[in-house]
Each structure stands twice: as structure tokens, then as C-alpha cells.
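Quick one, T. Sequence first:
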Amino acid sequence: MWQIFLSGGPIMYPLLLCSLMAITVTIERLWYFLTLHGDFDEMRRIVFRMMEKEAPLEAIQYLQKLNQPAARMLQAGLLYYGKDRQQVENSLKEAGELEIKKMERGLGILDVIITASPLLGLLGTVLGIISSFNVLAASQGLPSAAALSQGIAEALITTAFGLMIAIPLLFVMHWLNSIIEKKVGWMNKISKEFIEKYENRGE
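C-alpha cells:
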């Protein structure tokens, strides 16, 4: 395996770096989403029931036990309980935007790697072909098979390695984006309901 890697030429090293970065970010993001806990419907029901009872502190204490973006967003809104609607709405919005940034952390790096890996592979292909032509130009008669195969291997291996990095990452990115979209949808839904309940409290 190491011999195959070395035969790909110098471009294999930045490709290796890309693959290590992709694995690191993917594992970190998987861990982040797997550690989130708290049933959305149950959270929604309990928080709104506490709001009806005018018990924002109890709601905050309950939400602090949940590791969920929507829970942290609601905590920010409840901290302004009793203030005017605009302050509560701004607090929800700011907290929601912060949680979205947390969920999207690292996705920009994955996006760059998806784009850069095939391009690095293509660069390795070009360099490998150039190497093969240099062997042909330098040979007085028939070039040696070993010298030619080195350039051809460099041309093919880097392209393959670049695609092996980019293709799985496309599926990972799609999966992560689908999770984020789902959670953002929940956050939008519960923030609207929160504002409605907040306006109608005490009626």
C-alpha cells in the first residue's frame, strides 16, 4: 500500500492531508450530532405548559438539562421573559443564528476538500503525463518500461485518490446538511410558536 502511495508522486502528500482533515472533521461532526439529546415534541409541550403557568425559571432549568440547539435558543428567549416582544424575538434570532453556526462548523472545510481533491488529482495526472513525455524525449531508443510506468502510475493514482476522497465526502455533506435543515426547521417552528404563546400569555 505504501509503495502505491509513493508511486503517486509528490501530489499524494497534499491529498493525504486532505483525507486526514476530512476524516477529522467528519468524526467531530458525527460526535457533535450524536451527543445531541432531548425529544423535540416533549420539550415543546413542557416549555409551553410552564409558560402558561408563568414559570420561566422552571422552563430554563428544564432546558438546561437538554443538549439541543432549539433548547438553547429557547433559553435565550426565556431570559427576556417579561420584556417587550421585540427584545424576546431578537434574543431568539441571535441565539438561533449562533446555534446554526455551531451546527455548520467544519462544513466549509469539507466543501473545500470536495472541490480541491479532484483538482489535486488532476494536477498529479498532468505531472505524471509530463514525466512520461520527458522519459520518451530523453530516451535515445525505446524507453524503459519501468520509467514509463512510473509516470503513468503517477498520472492514474493521484486522480483515483482524489476521487476516493471527494465522492464519499459528497454523501457525508448531503447527510450533514439534511440533519441541519431538519433542526433549523424545528427551531423556526418552535420560535414562531414561542412568540405567539408569549404574546398571548395571561389571557
